[in-house]
Amino acid sequence: MGKKMVKIFTIVLVLILVGTGVMVSINFAAMSKNFENASPFNTDQQPKFRFMVIIDGSNLNYVAQFKEGAEAAALDYEVTYEFWDIAGNDKYDDILQQFDIGVYSGVDGIIVATYNADPYMDAYRNVLIRANELGIPVVTLNQDIANVEKVSHIAFNQYRIGSRIGFVLNKGLLLGGTIVVLQDEGNLQDDKARGIYENVTGEYEVKTVTIESEGENIFNAEGLTRQIINEYSDLRAIVCTNSDVTMGVVQAIKDTNKVGNIIVVGNDITEDIKDYIDKEVIFATVIADYWKLGYIAIETLVQFNQGEFVSSYPTIEVSIPSKDNINTYLEEAGLAYEETDQEN
């Protein structure tokens, strides 16, 4: 009887240990799925510096272009980096957590997406202060955390982008009404909205509306756009935040038979967005140079570590092509999208 009990206990213990090992493996895989230890240059020499890069991984086009730029800079300057592109419902908390881990990891610098909306601003400020105390240079992206020392904040000037959108809208808007600027809950667009308001001609009210982070962007944007259309009878234009949101807005505009009545300003360039510009469903689209952003971020950390001068607030310009110049823009940028037979 005693031997039988010992055998049963042993089997149960083995099953528990195996199950625990499986769970640990699953959890580790879930934590590591967005992580890449990048050593892009092929040389026997040790890298000059080792960095950590932590960006918002929600926009796959942004991630791909940013990574290409970062890899090009790493090759040019012979550095290596850990690359974290973090997405999901808890991305703002997860980015902040990885930033905190990076501060204590002994890297030669950190590039991190920061957000100054509540409740994240104070948390980012505290981690930045710790990084400064430990002598870890930090380059921030997205939104600036003011009044805290950092190597550089590299971003797209949202007010300037809004001003240019305002001028573009003047080509298509004829009547007064409401212009809606979509935004993420951690990435507010007040400066962009102000730029639009101050540069659009006519009696327009510019409102910011937040997209919930739960679920898929494209479906959230589609449902939210339907609500906006129902709420604002004088809706004249919607300004989008990324390619997925743009496609969600377009779908809602089509489903509610508002094509031609509501101007859509997209964000990013994909084959579908190009096609909808050709078909005049999308009026224009904001295209940012994410490759350049990735390159400059790595380059800035290298230059700082080498004791060179770096700009505290470099800005990267965007393009806002519409139907009359989209093909010229794509040719000059070295991109090409064939026209499709997709229906309106």
Protein architecture, described:
- By secondary structure, the chain is an alpha/beta fold.
- The chain folds into two domains: 32-156 and 290-317, 3-Layer(aba) Sandwich (Rossmann fold), CATH 3.40.50; 158-287 and 320-333, Response regulator (Rossmann fold), CATH 3.40.50.
- Helix content is 46%, strand content 19%.
- The chain contains eleven helices and twelve strands.
- The protein has helices at 2-32, 60-77, 91-103, 120-133, 158-169, 190-199, 217-231, 243-255, 271-278, 290-305, 326-333; strands at 35-38, 50-56, 80-86, 109-114, 138-142, 152-153, 177-184, 204-211, 235-239, 263-267, 284-288, 318-319.
- Helix 2 packs parallel to helix 10 (290-305) and helix 7 (217-231) packs across helix 8 (243-255).
- The protein is globular, with a radius of gyration of 24 Å.
Task: Fill in the keyword field for this structure.
single chain; 344 residues; alpha/beta; Rossmann fold; 6-stranded mixed sheet; 11 helices; 12 strands; disordered N terminus; disordered C terminus
List the helices and strands and how they pair.
Blueprint: H1 2-32, E1 35-38, E2 50-56, H2 60-77, E3 80-86, H3 91-103, E4 109-114, H4 120-133, E5 138-142, E6 152-153, H5 158-169, E7 177-184, H6 190-199, E8 204-211, H7 217-231, E9 235-239, H8 243-255, E10 263-267, H9 271-278, E11 284-288, H10 290-305, E12 318-319, H11 326-333
Parallel strand pairs: 2-3, 2-4, 4-5, 5-6, 7-8, 7-9, 9-10, 10-11
Antiparallel strand pairs: 1-3, 11-12
Helix pairs in contact: 2-10, 3-4, 5-6, 7-8
